[in-house]
Every structure is written in structure tokens, then in C-alpha cells.
Automatic annotation (TrEMBL):
Keywords per UniProt: Hydrolase, Membrane, Protease, Transmembrane, Transmembrane helix
Cleaved signal peptide residues: none
Protein species of origin: Stieleria maiorica
GO BP term (any one): CAAX-box protein maturation
Region called Disordered, residue ranges: 1-23
Residue stretches spanning the membrane: 58-85, 106-128, 148-172, 193-213, 248-266, 272-290, 302-324
Protein name according to UniProt: CAAX amino terminal protease self-immunity
Length: 340
């Protein structure tokens, strides 16, 4: 019986779980039966056929990077025309001209949304053409975690991001590009665009980046080289895509955490939710927080921090329970009990 991608009950989810055992073993044939019919060599061949090739997992991020950069260049030109009414190559190297474009709501939408859509388009096409099926290829399935575990994991995400940012910030000075981004966010937030900005910066990467890195790349790598290396490599690619050195180092632990969530839950949705919560909270923190370290936080910011940290600690405890008590996705096992 065909299962809908969003509704597999926990006891039947392995049939659609992209991290579970190969389909040749899942679909009505036990490991014992496979060994009895073909022996170890037959089972080995069945597993090898089901393991995805590794090169698409590495080629697709390169294609996505190319489409992202090309779209960013095109949208930058369009944004200059929209905001300044003209364009010249000199504007692209002018920090003040870029700040003016990014400070415009229309300019910000052009610079953020279109490149992110271009980033995810190769992933959507590859998943659509996949013989595995679109939902299963991207891990857009129910998985085996209950919804409370999804929410708990998402609430924990800002703590991971903040701890990483504080650790990196104590060792390295914030880059000029990150400072300019903070100033742009603060300007939009103070002009009454805070909530739409938080939703925009939260939702766009939560869909586009998660589809690519945790949905397509990690799902394939986990089945090919195992979850440890798969999560590590996909998280490294995720971090490198942020291009700024400080940002790369700071978001790598976040990528690892989101990768573990996606693997342990058997679904991309908790990682998408966590990514959305982290980015949205970060925007609020930048806008509400002090501009320099010498300034004291406002009462609103102090209350905001207390709420986020409190919810994060509560979520972390529940996430630990989910990690400890809920089942680990089935690994591909090449040897099992002997045939009888």
C-alpha cells in the first residue's frame, strides 16, 4: 500500500525512511530470506545496487553555487536599477552603494529571495527526476519522531547558534560584511519591518538551504558513507556556502546539529523548523540588541534573552530525551543472522 509522504505512522515509517535499510531488503524480503536464496554475495549485491552514487552529492552543490552566484549577480544589477535608477560596474565594489540597495525593502527582497530560489532549483529538479521519488529523496516524510520532539529540537537551535557565535566572537573579530549585515537588519527593524524581515530571513534559507544540504546531499551521503561522515561532509558544505570566514566557522556547529536532527528523526522537517527558528531569533536579537559591546542591553532585550534561553534549555532537555529514548534509524547491515 502506498503511503502519503506526510502521514506515515511510526510503525510503518521505515518503508519511506530515506535512512533505513535498502529497498531490496525492506519490501517483503527479510535479511534471512535474502541470505537463504542468494547467500552473502546476493545480499551484498542487493545492498550495493541500492546505495546511491556519491558524485551527485558533490556535483549538485557546485551547480547550486553557480546558479546562486549567477542569480546574485543578475539581481544585484536589477536592484541597482530599481533603487538608484542606474547601474555601473563601479557600484558593485562600492560598500555605500550596496548598503543603500540593501537598505531598500525591494532591494533586500531582490538580493535575498531570488538567489535562494536559484540555489534550490537544481535540487528540486534532481529530486523530481530521482527514481526514488521527490518526497523520499529530500526526506520530506513524517519520520518517526513525535511532533513534540520537532518543536523541542527547534527551540534548542538558537542556543547552538548563540554558543557557537559567542565562542567564535571571543577568538576572532567580526568581519566587515557581518557588521554591514547587522546594520542593515537593524535599519530595517527600526523602520517597522522587523517581523517581515525575521520571517524572510528565517523562512527562505529554512526551505532552500535545507532542501539542498540536509534534504538531498546528506540523505544520499548517509546511505553511501554512513551518517557520521555524511553529516560531517554535508555540514562542511553548508558552512562553506556562507563564504565569510567568520560565518563559516560559526555556522558549522549549527549544521552538525541540524544534520543530527534530520538523521535521528528520519525527516527533514525538524531541521527546517530549527533553521527557521534560529534565523528568525537571530534577526530579533540583532535588532533589539545593543550596537556595541560597551552598551548595556535594554529591558526588552534582556526579557527576550531570558525567554529564548529558557525555552532553549527546556527544548534541549526534551531533545535529549528524544535522542535517548526514540529509535535510531536502521543502518544498512551487510551481515545478519545466518540462514536457517
Amino acid at each position: 500500500m502506498t503511503q502519503e509522504p506526510f502521514g506515515e505512522p511510526p510503525h510503518e515509517q521505515d518503508a519511506a525512511n530515506p535512512y533505513s535499510a535498502p529497498s531490496a531488503i525492506r519490501q517483503g524480503t527479510s535479511v534471512t530470506s535474502a541470505l537463504a536464496e542468494d547467500g552473502d554475495d546476493g545480499l551484498q549485491r542487493s545492498v550495493q545496487r541500492d546505495r546511491p552514487r556519491i558524485w551527485p552529492s558533490l556535483l549538485l552543490p557546485l551547480i547550486s553555487l553557480a546558479t546562486f552566484l549567477l542569480s546574485s549577480l543578475v539581481m544585484m544589477v536589477v536592484a541597482f536599477f530599481v533603487v538608484h535608477g542606474e547601474f555601473s560596474p563601479r557600484m558593485m565594489v562600492s560598500a555605500e552603494a550596496m548598503r543603500t540597495v540593501s537598505s531598500s525593502r525591494v532591494g533586500l527582497l531582490l538580493l535575498v529571495v531570488a538567489p535562494q530560489v536559484a540555489l534550490v532549483m537544481p535540487t528540486l529538479i534532481a529530486a523530481w527526476l530521482s527514481p526514488v521519488g521527490f518526497s523520499r529523496r529530500l526526506s520530506l516524510i513524517r519520520g518517526h519522531w513525535p511532533y513534540w520532539a520537532w518543536v523541542a529540537a527547534a527551540l534548542t537551535t538558537p542556543l547552538i547558534g548563540w554558543i557557537s557565535s559567542i565562542a567564535v566572537g571571543s577568538l576572532m573579530e567580526e568581519s566587515e560584511s557581518l557588521k554591514m549585515m547587522s546594520d542593515i537588519f537593524r535599519g530595517h527593524g527600526e523602520s517597522g519591518f522587523l517581523v517581515p524581515l525575521a520571517l524572510l530571513i528565517g523562512a527562505t534559507p529554512a526551505f532552500c538551504e535545507e532542501f539542498l544540504f540536509r534534504g538531498y546531499v546528506q540523505t544520499r551521503l548517509n546511505r553511501r558513507i554512513g551518517p557520521a561522515l555524511g553529516i560531517l561532509l554535508s555540514s562542511a558544505l553548508f558552512a562553506i556556502f556562507h563564504m565569510d570566514l567568520i560565518h563559516i566557522i560559526a555556522v558549522f556547529p549549527l549544521g552538525l546539529y541540524l544534520g543530527v536532527i534530520a538523521w535521528r528523526s528520519g525527516s527533514l522537517f525538524p531541521a527546517m523548523l530549527g533553521h527557521f527558528v534560529n534565523n528568525s531569533i537571530s534577526v530579533f536579537a540583532v535588532v533589539l540588541g545593543p550596537e556595541t559591546q560597551d552598551q548595556d542591553p535594554t529591558p526588552e532585550m534582556a526579557l527576550f534573552l531570558l525567554v529564548v534561553i529558557g525555552l532553549g534549555l527546556f527544548g534541549a532537555m526534551l531533545t535529549a530525551v528524544a535522542m535517548w529514548r526514540l529509535p535510531v534509524p536502521q543502518a544498512v547491515t551487510l551481515r545478519a543472522e545466518p540462514a536457517v
